[in-house]
Amino acid sequence: MLKDPEPTIGPNTHTTPEVTGTNQTKVPHPERISLTSLFGVLLIAMALLMLELVLTRIFSVTIYYHFAFMAVSLALLGTAVSGVWVYILPRWFSLARFTTQSPIAALLFGLTSCAALIVYLTIPFAPGTSWGELLKTAVIYLALALPFFFGGLCISLPLSHFPKQVSRIYFFDLIGASLGCLLTIPVLNIFGGPSAVLFVAVLGSLASLIMSFATAKRAVKGLTAVGSLFFVGLLIFNLVSNAINVSYAKGEYEPKKYYERWNTFSRIVVIDPPKDTLPVWGLSKAYNEELPPFYLMNIDAQAGTPIIKFSGNFNDLRYLRWDVSTVVHTIKQNARQLVIGMGGGKDILAGLLFNQKEIVGVEINPEIINAVKGQYGDFTGHFYDDPRVKVVLDEGRTYLTQSGDKFDIIQASLIDSWAATSAGAFVLTENSLYTKEAFKIYWDRLNEGGIVTMSRFYLSDRPDETMRLLTLSMESWKEQGVIDPRQNIVVMFSDGIATMLLKKGAAFTREEIAALEKRTDQYGFSLLYAPGVDVRGPVGVVERAQPIQQLMKNADYAAFVKNYPLDISPPTDNRPFFFHTLRFGDSIRAMLGITLPPEADKVHSKGPLSVLGALLIIVTTLAAIFIFAPLFALRRKTKTSTTKKDIKSSLPFLGYFSLLGLGFLMVEIPLMQRFSLFLGHPVYSLAITLFSILLFSSLGSFLTGRVKPTNIRSRVIMVGLGLSLLIPIYIVALPLILGALVSLPILAKAIITVGLLAPLGLLMGMPFPLGIKLMSEERGWMVPWVWGINGALSVVASVLAVIIAIYNGFSFALALGALCYGGVLLLALFSRTMRKTANLAK
């Protein structure tokens, strides 16, 4: 049996003989872990979660939003590997060295965090699927996993040496993680992405300093003190000089930045517009006058919004008449207009140009409002101060739900959610503006005869966004009682942009259609669809309109949608992935790098899926190399200590902790999406939902410390049964409860969120420490191993949960989470190994 050498016991510990393996070898283990070590665990856990969330933000800027989940897998893989290596090198990671190794590991966490950040930010990195790009991605992935490895050591070491104290250790671990979740928000807002990583390094160095109090070695204490001062100095230096910053974004060198701000769900910079960039979305080819000067506000180096120079003379805005996204003003005058996602203010300026009586602009990002009103207020003519304009900081859907106001025009022009929040899941922030539930809200908040106008890309090789918008509109209006929604829809086009008009109540009148036809002819637009009239526009309009005409005039609409090469079915809140239009088979082909049919080859989600598939290969390979290969190699070399019988009898415990790794993430990710809709803001969802789950999980872990060894198995059965029953109740009841309470003030909703998550989080925090306590009675040597296996399966779950949600919905992913906990229940009930281990405790 693998065992540590005889340990040296510290002044605050007591020892007791413990059975550590199948050969019944007795090895003394301390019963108590020092308080300084526990506070070190808390700080490291805080730093680890913050690093994960901050890297999510940085990845969204430097590479692409679909890489957000990579931060989660980095964290889980690094910590999993640390547990495995503690398991396979027991003589190196001995108890005698614990008080020295823990502070050194914490210091190395800070050092590798800074080093990996500097290397990553200074190397152009645009991941792809060629072998060379895969190798480069793997090397960078490995470098960025190093700090998580050293941080993971700080947690896996005490778990290994103090298995009977797992409830306390896990409690401090989860408390630290929950506090880190809250702290990330102000740290990112104050310091920005790169300096936030340096702040995390400071936390790691403070953890090392606190942990060093438990060692008698002066050199270690001195080293941690010097390290703490160094990282504090480095943070201050970077705040003053901005020397460590993003140099490359999306593989390209960043242009000169006039303005830069970070927060938890975006980085905005103001730059000169690239060549051939226009300040409007769908400018007519017939426009031949000069366009006004403008800056480009770039969000995460991906989405742009123009900041247009405005002198206050509305005649200078006449170019907006040639923008197809403004056609709604042709048939709606003297109206109340709502602009969702106002950005630099182009749609508000258009409303002012067409003399609408009131314009409400809703913007979710405070930094965008601050930039346009503050730094660039003079440049934009302070149009925000016009008495007809009202600016609201909120998410558009939430504002409509809570305000109760009604409008004649609801406008959303090219509103995307391609940037990742710090929740860290692949496309977790898919836009909730494009779901059937959202369109019901639009219906409720429109005056009779009011119009929803949305603009999306419509290209000859990428018609899917507009096609899906049309199916969503028709299905949503049908559910509101409109017999033939095709009579309520008009689609116009210019320069790659299609603008849809969706009217509430009665169909478009002949006069309204005639006015739009006149606007089409006068300004050189294309009319791709309107009820009762033919397409019209420049040469090629018939071919361009063909996909839309086939959809809108098909007698068997449902069959057309079902047989269409892409998934253009209406999204729902349960399955909100508007931009993911690849069908399942094509998604698998994209992930494997297999050539797709022509219709699927150019869609937006192909690239993310190709890279996702490549990343899954990289993650699986690295997990095999650093987790499973060492374990099997060790098994071959230690035939006398770890026999086949040992491994076989341990399988139920490996299954137990694997199911916990899968189940926790399968529940956590869908819940974050559910509460994001309820709370109305990604920052609130991150701060409140993740904090609540981690906080109550820590309390659940703490409560398991009171469970006697003789009662552990029965408690596992009770908790497994509770979760197996409670999660399905949440699946059914949560949408009803949240839907009924969504209009409450944010403070009330935050309290409700905490209350709803409390029982689930409490139970989810119990199975892991209970399993460790049960194993420690006979199999304490396995603790680092199952810690690693649990982390490895969490890596898989972090990706798998969202892939499942894309095709089957978040409720299905939650149901699979319930099945995982059901598997835990079955193992506790019927596994002979677990029953035998529990009987030994008695």
Structure, explained:
With 842 residues, this protein is of the alpha/beta class. It has three domains: 1-260, Growth Hormone, Chain: A; 294-418 and 436-563, Rossmann fold, CATH 3.40.50; 638-842, Growth Hormone, Chain: A, CATH 1.20.1250. The strands form four sheets. Strands 11-10-9-12-13-15-14-16 form an eight-stranded mixed β-sheet, sandwiched between helices. Strands 5-6-7-8 form a four-stranded antiparallel β-sheet, with helices on both faces. Strands 1-2 form a two-stranded antiparallel ribbon. Strand 1 (15-19) and strand 2 form a beta hairpin. Helix 6 (193-211) runs antiparallel to helix 7 and helix 12 (464-479) runs parallel beside helix 14. The chain is globular, with a radius of gyration of 29 Å. The two termini are 23 Å apart.
- The domain tally reads 3
What's the CATH first level of the largest domain?
A: Mainly Alpha
What percent of residues adopt helix (DSSP H or I)?
Answer: 55-70%
Total E-strand runs? 16
> What is the rounded Rg?
29 Å
User: Strand share of the residues?
Assistant: 5-15%
Given as residue ranges, the uncertain stretches (5+ residues, pLDDT < 50) are: 1-28, 418-430
Task: Specify the overall morphology.
Answer: globular
Q: How are strands sequenced across the largest beta sheet?
A: 11-10-9-12-13-15-14-16
Total count of helical runs of at least 4 residues: 26
Q: How far apart are the termini? A: 23 Å
Write the CATH fold name of the largest domain.
Growth Hormone, Chain: A
- Overall average pLDDT: 85
